[in-house]
Amino acid sequence: MKSVSLFAIVAFAFGIHGAVAMPSHNYANSISVRNITTMQQSIMQSAIRTYEGSAAIALGSRADILARTGEAAHKNSPSLYDEQPLYGKMPIYGEYGDDTGILGHNGGDTTERPALNSMWLNWQHYDDDASIKHYGSIDSDYDVILFGLGGGHSKMGVGISQWGVFGGYAGSEQKKYDFSIDERGGYIGVYSGYSVREFNISVALDGGAMYNDADTTYGTDEYANMWLGSGINASYNIALTDSFSLQPAIYLGYTWVRSANYTAESGEDISNENFRMLDITPALRAIKHLGRGWFGILGVKYTFTSDFGGDVSVDGVNLPDLESRDFIEYGLGVEKSIDRFNIYLNINHRDGGREGWNGGIGFKYFF
After folding, report:
1. What's 19's DSSP letter?
2. In percent, how much of the chain has pLDDT > 70?
3. What is the DSSP string of 276-326?
4. Of all helices (H) and strands (E), which one includes residue 244?
């Protein structure tokens, strides 16, 4: 019997419950799929937040007061999509300003309904210390780049519906003292959203593939994973003043990852069960209009994770199960809209199962 198999049997006999003193390369796929689900959550939440609109939309009907000149201009003419007036109530259109006039828009200002109404690009970088129960921790740096097109805004009942498509690149590097994993891949997805005054609900689906190189003392193990994911987000805008609003939200995500079975460079046959992750993330954002189209955003969210599957066996002997850990994320952002162009920056910190900093930049253009 090979030494790794004997070690696994001894580990079970003594009931190891802490960090497993198992050669890390045996868990390479298990670590990769957990990282995929974390990247997937970042992809879905970034896409949904972008599609739901800019920060000014959170002001809801309060934006009427900030756009007095615009309101007067629209009183004697039909406003967008026969709504009177929209001013930030939906992710279609919104003006902000002060008594001197309109300073910018959150969306297009045409009475036509274009098939496409916006395009956007988003890049986020994450530098985490990922903690995995029964394994320990590993340094995890990853990037997600998203490109999307939004359109299909139309009146549906008492609200507004919309759709979108998105795709992009995801890549990461994970390091521990005895090995490292490089992951690189891409994904495509679709989005649908519905808004009724201050309430928004969004659904997104995506799928992707990830190619992995696990560098060990024995050589490089190569394997691939595919995933399918879904996410649903519900949020509500509470405008407390003419320039300050709160946005509570809750996100539910599910990801299925096809695991890889392969013969490692060390000679062991490594089998991995397909992996599934369910995550629930309640969140709260405070949004403040700072003046002249500048918005400041403070946010906090807590991610509860539940693992399913992903069992690992080496030469037919099962290894101790790993478990992902919950984490909290908090941070701030700034956003500026200039007519049809929107730009935003964010920086955040995580604690718990993921510890470290992340941040990024996004651009959005409204047709």
Report:
1. S
2. 77
3. EEEEEEEEEEEEEEEETTEEEEEEEEEEEEEEEE--EEETTEEPPPPEE--
4. strand 244-258
What are the beta bridge partners of residue 310?
A: none
Assess whether pLDDT exceeds 50 at residue 68. Answer: no
CA distance 179 to 130: 15
Are 236 and 247 in contact, with CB atoms under 8 Å apart? yes
Tell me which DSSP letter residue 33 carries. H
Distance of alpha carbon 172 from alpha carbon 141, whole angstroms: 5
Q: Which residue has the tokens 């549906």?
A: 156
Q: What is the pLDDT of residue 170?
A: 97
- Rounded CA-CA distance 111/69 in Å is 19
Q: What is the pLDDT of residues 286-299, one digit of tens each?
A: 998 887 778 899 99
So what's the pLDDT on residue 225? 97
Decide: 140 and 146 in contact? Cβ < 8 Å. no
Q: Characterize 140-176 residue by residue with b for buried, 16 or more Cβ atoms within 10 angstroms of its Cβ, and e for exposed.
A: bebbbbbebbbbebeeeeebbebebebbbebbbebeb
Regarding predicted confidence, which is higher, 11 or 239? 239
Cα first-last separation, the chain: 66
Share of the chain above pLDDT 90, in %: 55
- pTM for this predicted structure: 0.82
β-pairing, 275-291 vs 244-258, is antiparallel
The neighbour count for residue 181, using CB atoms within 10 Å, is: 25
